[in-house]
Every structure is written in C-alpha cells, then in structure tokens.
Fold this sequence. Notes:
Blueprint: E1 11-14, H1 25-28, E2 36-40, H2 43-47, H3 53-72, E3 77-81, H4 91-101, E4 106-110, H5 115-121, H6 124-128, E5 131-135, H7 144-151, H8 159-170, E6 174-175, E7 178-179, H9 210-222, H10 239-253, H11 277-282, H12 287-299, H13 305-329, H14 357-369, H15 374-387, H16 392-402, H17 408-419, H18 436-442, H19 463-474, H20 476-479, H21 486-494, H22 497-511
Helix pairs in contact: 3-9, 7-13, 8-13, 12-13, 13-17, 14-15, 16-17, 19-22
The chain binds flavin-adenine dinucleotide, ligand DLZ and iron/sulfur cluster.
Iron/sulfur cluster binds at residues 356-358, 436, 439-440, 445-446, 449, 451, 453, 462-464.
Amino acid sequence: xxxxxxxxxxxxxxxxxxxxxxxxxxxxxxxxxxxxxxxxxxxxxxxxxxxxxxxxxxxxxxxxxxxxxxxxxxxxxxxxxxxxxxxxxxxxxxxxxxxxxxxxxxxxxxxxxxxxxxxxxxxxxxxxxxxxxxxxxxxxxxxxxxxxxxxxxxxxxxxxxxxxxxxxxxxxxxxxxxxxxxxxxxxxxxxxxxxxxxxxxxxxxxxxxxxxxxxxxxxxxxxxxxxxxxxxxxxxxxxxxxxxxxxxxxxxxxxxxxxxxxxxxxxxxxxxxxxxxxxxxxxxxxxxxxxxxxxxxxxxxxxxxxxxxxxxxxxxxxxxxxxxxxxxxxxxxxxxxxxxxxxxxxxxxxxxxxxxxxxxxxxxxxxxxxxxxxxxxxxxxxxxxxxxxxxxxxxxxxxxxxxxxxxxxxxxxxxxxxxxxxxxxxxxxxxxxxxxxxxxxxxxxxxxxxxxxxxxxxxxxxxxxxxxxxxxxxxxxxxxxxxxxxxxxxxxxxxxxxxxxxxxxxxxxxxxxx
Length: 514
Ligand code: FAD
Ligand code: DLZ
Ligand code: SF4
C-alpha cells in the first residue's frame, strides 16, 4: 500500500491493463510527486467474457511489472490493487475504495478501448461525486475523429484507401509524395504456400520470474474454469522483453514475413509472424516504433520491400482502420447479422476435438497458446463459422475470449465485419468464404486429414467443399447483387439439379451432426 496522500490538488490517474505505456496521455501530464496512480486487477475485467487463462496472466503480470517500472522511475504514489485485495471486483469499486485511502480532487483516465467501459465511465462523475476527465487515447496514429472525417460521405470504407492516407501521414516507406519502390502494396509478391520441409526461427520465450509465478498461481486458483492452458507461460511481460521480441522479429522473421504470410503448416504455430499484437495492444510497444524498425530494415537492405511494406500495412493500415470502424459503427455494430445466422458455435471450438485437421490445428493451438495467426482466424475458424451459419455474437464472444491480443475495439470489426460479413459489406467487398481448395493450396493440413479435399460430396468429402456451396445457395438473395461473386453464382447455376442437391444434402447431413 502506498503512503497516504492528502491533497485536493492531487489527481487520481487510473491506468488500465491495456494502457501500459509510459507515454500514456494521462501520465504525460501528471506529477510524479503529487498525483496518485491507481492500477487494479478486478474480476469484472477478467470475466465479462471468460478470457483465456494465459490472457489474464499476461495482463496481470504485465500490469504488476508496469507498476514496478513506474515506481523505479520515480513515481511516488503508485497504488496497486492485486486481485486478492480487490474487494469490489470492479474498476469503479476500486476507484471508490481509493477515495477512502487518498484525498484527491479529480480522476483522470485515458479513454478505454471498449465501449461498454467508456459508457460506464461516463457515469462515474455522478457515482463518485468527483470530476472525471477522460483523455483521448493518442497511442494510435489516427484519431477517432480523423477516421470519422475520412469515412464521411464514403459508401465503401476500403482499407486500401485509408492506408494511403496513413502512409502519407507517417511518411513510412515514402519517397516524397510517392510510395517507395513505386507501388503502395506488394501483396502480389506475397501469399506463397510453404513447403512441408520449411523451418521457421523460434521466437523468444521468457521464463516466468517471481512476479509472474505469483500471478500464475493466482490465475490457476481463481480462473480455473476459464478456457485454455495456463502453462507453459512464455510471453514477454515488460517493455524490455517486448523490445527483445521486436528485435528478434525484425532480424529473423521480417525478411520472409510477406512471402509466407498466408501459409499454414501442421505443427507450425507461429511461422514468420511477429507475435507482437498482444504487446502493441497492451501498450508495451508503440505501433509507430515497430513500423519504423521495419522500414529501417528495408533501408538497411535487411528486408525486402514486400516484407517491410506488408508488415507496415498490417499495423498502420489494418490495425488503425479496424479501430476507426469500431468507433464509427458502435454501438449498433455488435448487433449486425446480415445473414440472420443463428446456429450455436460447435462444441469443438472449446476443445479442438474434430477430425477436420485444419480446425483441430487452429483451435488446439489457440487453446494452448492464446494465439493463432491471421489466416487461421480468418480462413479456418472464421470461414467455417460463417459457412455453417453461426450466430455472429457467439463467434464474437469466442474470439474475444480466446486470444491474448483480444480487446473488443480490434476483435469485433475483425470478426463481425471481416470474417463473418455480418455488416453486409461495410468493410469487405465480399465474404471471406472458401471451400477446401484454398486451404489445400495454402497449407499441408489436407494431407493429414481424414476427409478428402478432392471429394465434393458424401461422407468422405471435405466438409468445407459442400458447406461452401450450401452457404452460397442459402444466402443467394443477400449476395446475388455482389458483382465480385457473380461468376461463382454462374457456376452454381450451371450445375445440374442432381449436383446441387448432392451438395445441399451433404451439407444438411453434416450440419445435423453438429
Ligand atoms: P502479424 O501477422 O505479425 O501482423 C503484424 C501486426 O499487424 C500484428 O501484430 C497486428 O498488430 C497488426 N495486424 C495485422 N492484421 C490486423 C488486423 N486485421 N487487425 C488489427 N491489427 C492487425 N488482432 C488483434 O490484435 N486482436 C484481436 O482480437 C483480433 N481478432 C481477430 C479476429 C478475427 C476473426 C480475425 C480474422 C483477425 C483478428 N485479428 C485480431 C487480426 C490479426 O489476426 C492479428 O492481429 C494477428 O494474427 C496477430 O498476430 P501477429 O502479431 O503475429 O500478427
Ligand atoms: C483484459 C483485462 C483483464 C483481464 N483484467 C484487467 C484488470 O484486472 N484491470 C484492468 O485495469 N484491466 C484489465 N484488462 C484490460 C481491460 O479489459 C481493458 O482496459 C478494457 O477492455 C478496455 O480496452
Ligand atoms: Fe480442412 Fe477439408 Fe483440408 Fe480436412 S480436407 S484439412 S477439413 S480443408
């Protein structure tokens, strides 16, 4: 417990579990000797969805290390409430409890990344009888208002257009007003399938220190009924460790990042991906610094343009765009369900127990690592959920629970918009739906599967093959006007009635087993 403070002139600065940045707007304007920093581990944040055990351990350990770093940096009043001491179980409750320990005139908070918490904080002033100041989170490269201005009047909100604005704004990989190398996007050179024999450099793994070991035993005790394996726990939990991960990625995996970005291999959980999203989202790394490092690697001749540009696009393009969509479209966004899908999520999403190798690989590693890479999320678990007609809210809750990088501002548009097309095309020009052929092209999963990817219907056939046509047939009214899939519907219409019926019967038989 920190020394008691008593001054109406003091402020209480509440720092949330994903605001672990020394340059946080609230900390930049705070006084090290006067203001009180409050950080609290609370049940409400860990359980509003049943977060993966590893996610909770990551956030709690990173919070504890961050509080220690603040103290080491000269902050005099760091009031940290570990989960065992949180009586109220909520952030508001902990601010109220802090009122009894300290005297302060104002509460200052950087706006949280989720609307449920922001709406709640808007009521806090009334609840606390104290001024509550919410500051914009300026750890993003585009502000919420800037994105709204960009979106105004546009019928389609395409990432590629927004990305160019961000390249010009940041100057990353720019040659004057033109993109480095003459092209904005080098995806044409990416998306190679990986060979079975390919080896990938392992990413750094950190032994839990005493602080993390304490957190692990707390999580084991309190959140045992949450999804996922707690151990082995090897995530970085400090900025220094996260910087080591960044160095390692830039040196060893960035050079091949573009080439195999969409590839998948049995047993290869990380490939050339950066595994940085959890650190960026929690605030341990800054999005601009990671991009500057990638750009520098290109200028130093250590990474080709397709790799550096591909990586930078993910961060200043996709990540910023996704956040813009969240704040533009919420609160209604979470209710979107363009296809009227209402199926429950199959039980095997919580166990990984299925004969479909692509799904068992993606789900098992998700449950063990709290991580799967983008194409596994989009084209395996997301694609399958959409093809079978899963209620978007159910799959949204799954993604929010299972990944260590999941916060609603980034998870929801990726799930509802990009992967489920539940917004009817506000984000994507067509649904990311595919049959087994695409998965077979980009992975070696099918070679190791009990289903046959070359068979189209019947018990032995790859379920993605008939589910794909069933999805298109079921949703024809909603999709037939989409010119990007007109050709696919022409193929469907050219099929004989017997063939169409065989697809639909195989799908019905399979769906009845779920
Ligand atoms: P890399 O492949 O190395 O990419 C580099 C960085 O780019 C990432 O660290 C991340 O910061 C950023 N990035 C890449 N794609 C996206 C994207 N579509 N949206 C936002 N940032 C992106 N990402 C999350 O951070 N949190 C989520 O909860 C989340 N949920 C997703 C749900 C679905 C259904 C899908 C399809 C994607 C989701 N993503 C989410 C986006 C993406 O899959 C992850 O950011 C990425 O897999 C993280 O792994 P990485 O750090 O190894 O990424
Ligand atoms: C994710 C998370 C978890 C598991 N626990 C806490 C916590 O105990 N205290 C806290 O301040 N933040 C936590 N977080 C992060 C919050 O959920 C996050 O700040 C909001 O969802 C807004 O993005
Ligand atoms: Fe997945 Fe079908 Fe390939 Fe099996 S055959 S791994 S179910 S795509």
